[in-house]
Each structure stands twice: as C-alpha cells, then as structure tokens.
Design goal:
Bound molecules: S-adenosyl-L-homocysteine, magnesium ion
Distance between the termini: 37 Å
Helix content: 25-40%
CATH superfamily: Vaccinia Virus protein VP39
CATH class: Alpha Beta
Strand content: 15-25%
Radius of gyration: 16 Å
C-alpha cells in the first residue's frame, strides 16, 4: 500500500512483532499508516491527556505513547481481561508503563466516571457503540480537542452503493449514524479520511 511513492511507515521490531501476533490471533489493530498519522497529530498538537477506547494488545496505545511529551499520558480502556493483561505486559516490555494508564472494564460504564479534560480521544472499540461512547465523552473534551474514530468505513461497506449483505447492514447503518452525528453536530468540525479502514477526525470548536 503506497501513495505518491510513499511506503508504509517504518516500524521497529517491537511493533512488527505485535503486528504479527495480531495477525495470528485475529486481533483488529490499526494499520501502520494510522499509527503514523496519530503520531503526527500528537506531535503537532501536544495533547496533555489522551483517551483511548479499545486497547486490545496495546499496539495503537504504543504508537501514541511514543509520541507524547513530558508529563502527558495516555489513558486506555479495555473490557477483555486477557487483552488488558497482554497489553500491560507489552507496555512494560516497551518501557512505556509510566506514560500509560490502563482501565479495565466496559467503556460505557467507565466513561461516566472519568474526569476531563481529554484533549485527544481515539475511539477504536465496538463499532456499534461509537455514538454511545461519543455522547458520554463530549463533555470531557475541551474546545480545540481532537476526537478520532477508527474503522468508520468498515472495509468500504459504508461507502458502497446498493445492496449490502444482511449481516453487515446493521453495522453500516450504525456507523453511518456516527458519521451523520459528527457531521451535523454544531460543536464539531469533522472529516472522514480514507486512511486504514477509514478514520473520522473531529475537532471541538465550541
Ligand atoms: N486499538 C487497538 C485495537 C482495538 S480492537 C489497536 O489498534 O491496537 C477493539 C478492542 O476493544 C477489543 O480488544 C475489545 O475487547 C475492546 N472493546 C470492545 N468494546 C469495548 C467496550 N465497550 N469497552 C472497552 N473495550 C471494548
Ligand atoms: Mg480499529
């Protein structure tokens, strides 16, 4: 995959090993170019507190934590115990435990108890719940804060014309509702990028 002569971003052996493990265990991690994009945004914006929903084995968390500066931290939520523990090992092995705070549980139950501000939010958990996550975290994001959501184009199904197989129809409609919401919301400016599996990017403007 390349555009304009650009190849995939360089990853070290640690990230490559996580990619291999994700491939073997069918864990849906972000594409490397999404990792690179997250790093670029973080280096430019310099957020103080990043919130991630959906840790899995911590691949995307590591991309982000490597880009933060100084005291900034990444808070990441995961509801699967096995994933939560695997991620913890990976953060230790990556030497990033200091920059990452893990929360174990369902984001829908945890978000109402979180205190803001989060000036950078990455949503990458259950696609059917994106809008529920967003509604719970809108008040935690300050003006100027960025909200990103992965997999919003769902392998192209969201943009596809005509018939969509029944098993995918509900998911496509649910994702479309998220996209409509961020597009119509008076406090958000949004854009969908054809990066990885589709990345929605919103900035809170008031
Ligand atoms: N962000 C990761 C991949 C996450 S895969 C990466 O790119 O490396 C999605 C993860 O979200 C799964 O591990 C799943 O267990 C978790 N998840 C799904 N719904 C959740 C919820 N409601 N709360 C917390 N975690 C959730
Ligand atoms: Mg994803």
């Amino acid at each position: 995959m390349s555009a304009g002569g650009f190849s995939l971003p360089v990853r070290d052996d640690f990230l490559l090993a996580l990619e291999e493990r994700a491939r073997k265990d069918y864990i849906p991690i972000i594409k490397a170019e999404v990792g690179q994009f997250l790093q670029i945004l973080i280096k430019a914006k310099k957020p103080k507190r990043i919130l991630e929903i959906g840790t899995a084995i911590g691949y995307s968390t590591i991309w982000m934590a490597r880009a933060v500066e100084g005291e900034a931290e990444v808070i990441t939520i995961e509801k699967d115990a096995e994933m939560y523990l695997a991620a913890r090992e990976n953060f230790q092995a990556a030497g990033l435990s200091e920059k990452i705070r893990q929360k174990y549980g369902d984001a829908l139950e945890i978000l109402p108890y979180l205190k803001g501000d989060f000036d950078f939010v990455f949503i990458d958990a259950a696609k059917g719940q994106y809008l529920n996550y967003l509604e719970l975290l809108m008040d935690l994001v300050p003006v100027g804060g960025l909200i990103l959501a992965d997999n919003v184009l769902y392998r192209g199904y969201v943009e596809k014309e005509g018939q969509i197989a029944h098993k995918r129809r509900t998911m496509v409609r649910t994702l479309q509702k998220y996209l409509d919401f961020i597009q119509d919301h008076p406090c958000l400016d949004s854009l969908v990028l054809n990066l990885g599996d589709g990345l929605a990017l919103s900035v809170k403007k008031d």
